Amino acid sequence: MPKMRAAIFVEPGRIVLDEKPIPNIGPLDALVRISTTTICGTDIHILKGEYPVAPGLTIGHEPVGIIEKLGSAVQGYREGQRVIAGAITPSGYSEACLCGCHSQDGAGTKHGWKAMGGWKFGNTIDGCQAEYLRVPDAMANLAPVPDGLTDEQVLMCPDILSTGFSGAESGRIRIGDTVAVFAQGPIGLCATAGAKLMGATTIIAVESLPERIDMSRRMGADHVIDFTKADPVEEIRRLTDGRGVDVSIEALGRQQTFEAALRVLRPGGTLSSLGVYSGDLRIPLDGFLAGLGDYTIRTTLCPGGKERMRRLISAIASGRVDTRPLVTHRFKLDQIEEAYDLFSHQRDGVLKVAIAP
Amino acid sequence: MPKMRAAIFVEPGRIVLDEKPIPNIGPLDALVRISTTTICGTDIHILKGEYPVAPGLTIGHEPVGIIEKLGSAVQGYREGQRVIAGAITPSGYSEACLCGCHSQDGAGTKHGWKAMGGWKFGNTIDGCQAEYLRVPDAMANLAPVPDGLTDEQVLMCPDILSTGFSGAESGRIRIGDTVAVFAQGPIGLCATAGAKLMGATTIIAVESLPERIDMSRRMGADHVIDFTKADPVEEIRRLTDGRGVDVSIEALGRQQTFEAALRVLRPGGTLSSLGVYSGDLRIPLDGFLAGLGDYTIRTTLCPGGKERMRRLISAIASGRVDTRPLVTHRFKLDQIEEAYDLFSHQRDGVLKVAIAP
Amino acid sequence: MPKMRAAIFVEPGRIVLDEKPIPNIGPLDALVRISTTTICGTDIHILKGEYPVAPGLTIGHEPVGIIEKLGSAVQGYREGQRVIAGAITPSGYSEACLCGCHSQDGAGTKHGWKAMGGWKFGNTIDGCQAEYLRVPDAMANLAPVPDGLTDEQVLMCPDILSTGFSGAESGRIRIGDTVAVFAQGPIGLCATAGAKLMGATTIIAVESLPERIDMSRRMGADHVIDFTKADPVEEIRRLTDGRGVDVSIEALGRQQTFEAALRVLRPGGTLSSLGVYSGDLRIPLDGFLAGLGDYTIRTTLCPGGKERMRRLISAIASGRVDTRPLVTHRFKLDQIEEAYDLFSHQRDGVLKVAIAP
Amino acid sequence: MPKMRAAIFVEPGRIVLDEKPIPNIGPLDALVRISTTTICGTDIHILKGEYPVAPGLTIGHEPVGIIEKLGSAVQGYREGQRVIAGAITPSGYSEACLCGCHSQDGAGTKHGWKAMGGWKFGNTIDGCQAEYLRVPDAMANLAPVPDGLTDEQVLMCPDILSTGFSGAESGRIRIGDTVAVFAQGPIGLCATAGAKLMGATTIIAVESLPERIDMSRRMGADHVIDFTKADPVEEIRRLTDGRGVDVSIEALGRQQTFEAALRVLRPGGTLSSLGVYSGDLRIPLDGFLAGLGDYTIRTTLCPGGKERMRRLISAIASGRVDTRPLVTHRFKLDQIEEAYDLFSHQRDGVLKVAIAP
Fold first, then answer.
1. Of B111-125, C157-171, C300-314, which gets the smallest average pLDDT?
2. Which chain D residue has the Cα nearest residue C251?
3. Buried residues in A317-339 as b, exposed as e (16+ CB within 10 A)
4. Nearest Cβ partner for A104 among B99, B101, B268
5. Mean pLDDT over each residue of chain A, to the nearest integer
6. Would you state the pLDDT for residue C114?
7. What residue intervals traverse the membrane (chains A, B, C, D) (predicted)?
8. Which of A11, B337, C114, D275 is the most buried (most CB within 10 A)?
9. Cα separations in angstroms, A86 against A42, A313, B288
10. Closest residue by Cα to residue A155 from A335, A349, A329
């Protein structure tokens, strides 16, 4: 039974590189040899034990690689093809998928929809911080990468770009909208890029780290508010002449940003929430107009599936958005523990790391 | 200066019937002689001082009446016509109106949209618990009542029916949806009727008062859960075979019902909130899947305007919905203090009262 | 190799009952023993040679039956379960499916989306007017039938009810809409029922056959115009007080009805087209306001997939709609040539036939 | 009675500059002193007698100017303010407006919605190719122009930019869409800009004039097909690898472009039509998949109203789009007949003219 190296969750505080068998595949699966992957903020939650996964699980949900082997029932691909798969891998055939809610894939369970059922890699099945990855429901999930694009150019598509764009999409941004984006980490930066791509004509980002403030402007922010220097709510009211924003995007997952995102919203506006929260969340009633403000609050889990990946790759290939500047550091798979250390402590201005086996 | 009788807010705890001048009208206004009106739960909030209005204000926002006089610039109506106007009276020409958010009408203010700007009657201008009412922006707000319909048949259109239906509409109910409606007061009952009218095929209502339970079935509920006898969350899970509901409608404005409405929702579902809350509102993270459940929370303020009223009248005229059973008690305007007393204490199985000057 | 009886297309004008082998199934398929099926207007187009299919093909796309055998990769079902499958059987994993356009399933073809790729039964693969049926992508398509419902109660779900309802859904009918439905054959009747189920408060049907006029009222029409006695366009203008309808549904597939459906539409309205047209279709510019009327014309192919079927079954089970009266005649599979004869000549007031092997 | 100069329609073939009285205004109107205006393709239809208007009418519907006087009931503006108004001037209070269909404003007529009722300037009331303009329903229509922007920068907002963008908006373009735009006149160019602004990642324009081909690339086209050198349908199939486009925009108003726009569409796609057609329009059934392709055809009349103008001005002010290059020629009002001559014959590479009184 051939072995491979993989980043494995052992216990809270410990993700280690170890050997485990190369995965077997079933009729609907594909085996992908990973050429590039990365670490996500969610992986840090797992590392810290804030999000529980089974000990022994391979971590990682952002794969770029080469098809090594196809399941017996898989058609439409060939071995040797370079592909990505989304962090979320919908089956396509669950009730949730069939009514358009692919991220909440429940895959044939009797009792319907399993929350986050679409997020499998590094959550309920082995992930991609490894030499090889089993991709379930391959026909719904493998998206070919055009020759002209490097691995790093498409590395953000599986999660960061898909999630960030969905923040803009779930906000239903329209041409001429004023949009606020709270936090400019990798996902917030992609939300900013998405807001611009959808036609927002005033984008106000909120961030304090200098390198992220710079990157924010580069991704499309018209104004960046350093929240250590000014109150974002007051500043946004001023910038919008008292009007508020049409859409605000929360990209951090904290009470404070959620609350501010609500307070800056014009009546009838939408709060598009991307954050993963811990503890309860409070809705301040003044910011909510006691329930009378015609507000919408919408949360979105990273959209996946091959068609979503195709569209994101197309955004990259057309030059509409360029996520290469987000890759600030590069590691070999052998150095992944070092990469986790850097990334979890947000040292050295890190935004995203690229990891190549 | 001719006088009329009107129900006037004096101070918290006191709404009294008194005399005040018949309103003057401007070029865009109409003067309506009230033939029937009613008391709303919101009026009780005003009575109790929970929602502040100016002392001396005439209360009431649900008018049925006869056009007494038209402003000089008003076209398309004639004096003597029987009309209703919505509780919310959009101008039609504000930025908010022009982008479809009529309830949040800001009517030309420099600093944009004033929250709830559309709610004027008995809030920012004199209301309709009186012999006469000034209707602003008459051309946007007066809806003729067909001869075949009585005052009481259309009495719920200005607020209760419009709000209740909007609970279903904002939930974007589709054919085949399973819907839960929390609380079966007048608005919750109309939300139930709206859910049925939009094609929900399983409607689960939550209520404890026997007469409201009966009325709930009459308005379209397939199941009614008495929350004093069973836990609604558990019961709804059981009724939906673990699946949860597609849409839940909150029609009370309490932490407990809001929370339950969220917990019974399937991933990807919508919580449509009609309640007016006090104090902060907590989002329980287990019910919210920490922000990863693709949930939508949408609040809606009663839609108004003459086209909305026309559509609601059409729903009544076609027999699709009948709100007459909601009128459980009748009073003369002279007896309005007695009516407030009955209604505010929810005595004698009262649902809605009809008040005729 | 065990044999079964099946209705086979031989050549234009000839569909015959003959023997052919019971289908083999692959890992994703299911074999269903048909208990009840029916004949569709589309089958008549095939019979007449107006819609070409391969000689030797088994016809029929409306199956009710019992799972006889499941493919090796199929989970979530058990043999012996009573099920239906939609006329359209999306894979769930094609690009088309993944962006919500399940009917236009292209199933992994390199060159993307094949028109009507979702319609397979009796079109590109063997259909269900037979003793046994192979259902592809079973996990996306098999919908269990609750014990309380008879075969005939769910017999319209696979096509007629799904198509008819989609006429209303694609029209985006809202509470209070006025809707016209042109032609009250089985699909038009289900469109009428769908319009009512979605909250249309004035439904005007156009039809001339007495039994269909009666059935139309039963399914929800408020007015039925006999086009042999009055001009529907004039009559609808009169009934709507010159206003026109919000949504018109074309359920026949003729130039004349398409044109009338456009002419009766208010500016900004939607023509929802269900018809299958032959020859070119002309858009009359007066009815189209030369392109300036903010009109939408939308065509819809019968939505399929197990989640759609679940919802339709729920509409039946809840009593919201009852399609049993549409089954006017019953035959054994042995008599299917006779059934084709009756149905293709629309003799004896036939609406739909039930065929039981 | 003070006089002004105005471009007046006399009879087919003759628009002349003549004197007429400066308009009187009513309580809801504003009088605007025109500082810059332009000529539209629609004006040429009027000139040629293809679109009938009353002799004596002042032509023009694209005004930039200064508020000279406000009606007695108009609030929220001051005399001397620089403003624009849309080509379409909704009242805000008609049934059509109140249900979001502002362009089809019917303004209180008993018999409902008058087609194109929102287009008043140079159609049903005097237009803006004059020294002064009466703007009806001023509070719904006047949009202030920020000091930093020149007249020419906002000159395209009233019609060309609003119409062009609406082509993209009515196509419901999403991030990653492939879009074809047929014809790159001023409106087609703005549709191209709108498609880019909404996130289309592959934009294919069809045009033959060299200067328009250049401008098309500048506005966002990734590919431009010269239809005199290649068949657009074949070429688009090739460019999309057989897949077709998600959205096609027709910006000419001819059978040939309409037909091609339909043929290049993927099943499930949307044809967004901006053209004004003459004669009947044929839908080719092969391009329409006989009604089974899940297609949407949507036509859009230029959206107007002050909120729309505010959003377009914001798109200009933010630098997201720059329409200055479209102004290729400049004239004084005295030279307007010369301007008509140049523009109607499309001489000298003209795209749009600016006319300053």
1. B111-125
2. D291
3. bbebbebeebbbbebebebbeeb
4. B268
5. 95
6. 60
7. none
8. D275
9. 15, 11, 23
10. A329
**Cα dihedral sign for B88, B94, B98, B104?**
negative
Question: For residue C115, what pLDDT band results from cuts at 50, 70 and 90?
Answer: low
Q: Among C330, C180, C324, C163, which residue's Cα sits nearest to residue C246?
A: C180
Type and span of the H or E element at B238 = helix B232-239
Distance in angstroms (rounded) separating the CA atoms of residues D105 and C349: 45
**Contact (CB, 8 A) for C141 and C71:** no
Q: Return the closest-CA partner of residue C185 out of C159, C211, C151.
A: C211
Chain CA centroid to CA C257, Å? 18
Rounded to 5 degrees, φ, ψ at D139 are: -65, -20
- Count of CB atoms situated within 10 Å of the CB of B324: 12
Q: Does the beta carbon of D104 lie under 8 angstroms from any beta carbon of chain C?
A: yes
ipTM of the complex, rounded to two decimals: 0.96
Given A117, A281, A291, which is nearest B253 (Cβ)?
A291
- Interface B-C, measured as beta-carbon pairs within 8 A, has a size of 62
Q: Check if the beta carbon of residue A294 is closer than 8 Å to that of residue A317.
A: no
Under 8 Å CB pairs connecting chains B and D tally to: 68
Residue of chain D whose alpha carbon sits nearest to that of B106: D76
Neighbours of C230 (CB within 10 A): 13
In the predicted structure, residue C113 carries a pLDDT above the cut 60? no
Helix, strand, or coil here: C244? Answer: coil
Q: Tokens 């959003």 — which residue?
A: D311
Tokens representing residue D232 in the block: 């657009």
pLDDT mean for each 10 residues of chain D (357 residues) = 95 97 97 98 94 96 98 95 98 92 70 71 97 98 98 98 98 98 98 98 98 98 98 96 95 96 96 92 90 96 97 98 98 98 96 96
Smallest CA–CA distance, residue A16 to chain D, in Å, is 38
Q: Which amino acid is at D122?
A: G
What are the chain C neighbours of A102 within 8 Å (beta carbons)? Answer: 98
Chain C residues lying within 8 Å of A91, measured CB to CB: 92-93, 139
Q: Does C332 touch chain B (CB under 8 A)?
A: no
Q: How far apart are CA B23 and CA B171, in angstroms?
A: 39
**Residue linked to tokens 């019937």:** B17
d(CA A197, CA A213): 19
Query: Within the 127-156 window of chain D, which residues sit less than 8 Å (CB to CB) from chain C?
Result: none
Q: D95 to chain B: which residues are within 8 Å by CB?
A: 306-307, 310
- Contact A290/B119 with Cβ under 8 angstroms? no
| Minimal CA separation from C178 to chain A, in Å | 27
Domains in chain D, CATH or no CATH each: 3-85+121-155+323-356 (3.90.180.10), 161-299 (3.40.50.720)
Residue A327: in which H helix or E strand, if any? strand A327-332
Copy the structure tokens of residue C100.
Answer: 């919500």
- SS3 per residue for C33-63: EEEEECCCHHHHHHHCCCCCCCCCCECCCCC
> Please, which residues 152-211 of chain D have a Cβ atom closer than 8 Å to chain A?
165, 168-169, 174-178, 194, 197-199, 201-202
- Taking residue D128's Cβ as centre, other Cβ atoms within 10 Å add up to 31
**8 Å CB contact between B148 and B142:** no
pLDDT at D115: 66
Q: Which of D89, D72, D134 minimizes the C-alpha distance to B27?
A: D72
Q: C21 φ, ψ to 5°?
A: -65, 145
Portion of chain C with pLDDT greater than 70, in percent: 97
Residues in B 108-127 with any Cβ partner in D closer than 8 A: 108-110
